[in-house]
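Continuing from the previous page of notes. For each protein in this section, the sequence appears first, followed by its structure tokens. Read the first protein now.
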Amino acid sequence: MANQSLAPFGDKPVYKAVRTSRLYEQIVQQIEESILKGALKPGDQLPAERELAQNFGVSRTAVREAVKALREKGLVEAYSGRGTFITNGTSQAIRQSLDLMSRIGQQEGLAHLAELRQILEPEIAALAATRIEDQLLATMREAVATMDRSLHDPDAYIEADLDFHLALAEAAANPLVLSLLDSIVGLLREQRLRIFRIDGGPERGQYHHKRILAATEAHDPEKARAAMRAHLGQVREDSRDSSAEEPPSSKSST
């Protein structure tokens, strides 16, 4: 699909003009336009995630978010082991948004996110260390290299950071784990953006990413678990620092 420029959303007073568009939103619009034009029809299967990422020139994380958004709109349905297919768009219920649930009480939601990560990700890292395959190790190495090059580029750094953690989730070889992490990608992106703005935040993150990668390459579940716990401790501390810079009414003990 060729890249197309995006038009603003409507002209109703309730809406604000969109100054920039995230990558996944551009993917969503192009697929929607293909559906409207009849190039994609109900029952058609979308290409595999890796192929879509290559076609659009984006990360696999961006593709995952685009597919999630299309599912929430009822335009596609994903079937385990079969792929993602275009639906007729009339029989799909609107899925509840974890992102919206968190934003109702934003600071409390970020604290809940930190707690959820502490519960899940150390064990994900341990599983990944015993099960990871070379292809996903290469994805992790590439993500670390991208983050090294992007210490002053929040968009590139955060996309690579998400790819790193989602590669671990995929390597755990449990589709429920990957689905759960996919469902909170929007929240993870917001958390990372806050931390990126803290002085030295990206560098501290990279120190821990490299420890996690080394433990995973060594297929050492205990070291991978410990490295992830240390990383999440750093995330919690940096999140506290980011909250301390906000007005008193919005502070949290994240």
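Done with the first. The second protein uses the same format. Note its length before scrolling.
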Amino acid sequence: MNGQSHGSPEGEKTSNIFIRILRWFDKNTESYLMVVFYVALALIISIEVARRYLLGEQTQWGSVVSIYCFIWLSWLGCAYHVKTRGHLRFGEIRRSMPRLAQAIFYILDDVLWLVLASVVVTSSWNLIQTQMMLENVIEGTRSIPLAIATAAVPAGWLLIVVRAVQDIWTIIFEYRYDLPFERRTGPVD
């Protein structure tokens, strides 16, 4: 042997599959989850409207669950916009700044997301613990814990934390290698 250690082909294959799965999740998490909650929201509302007008009845839980689907959709959308740099960032003003100032302000945005996330996650986690302790359930259901619905807030904000940290690394990389501070995909400023 020449002193170099080589991994087994099986280990490298497993590692490559794991990396591909991570990249897929990184790229698609918010998008797919937003579609799931949007479809659930639309189906519940459509079915409940049809039941109300055709049968003259409706479920007690339908309107409540659709509201919680919307809350999940909203927080996932927020994380998506942090990921794509699609939230309000005053792009035209930033583009007129010197490059170092642009980098500093982009990083400041992400640091502010992280600070706000620490407050929101802590507060919402305390609420979830209380709901679990009191065994609260979603109105109109007998067994679906309210904590699942409330978990949208810390889940969305933890995803925002991941996206903000990723963005800080990306900004440092873009600055270091003189790459443009581009939005990855998403709506316009």
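What the second structure shows: The chain has one domain: 10-176. Residues 9-55 form the longest helix (47 residues). We return to this in next week's lecture.
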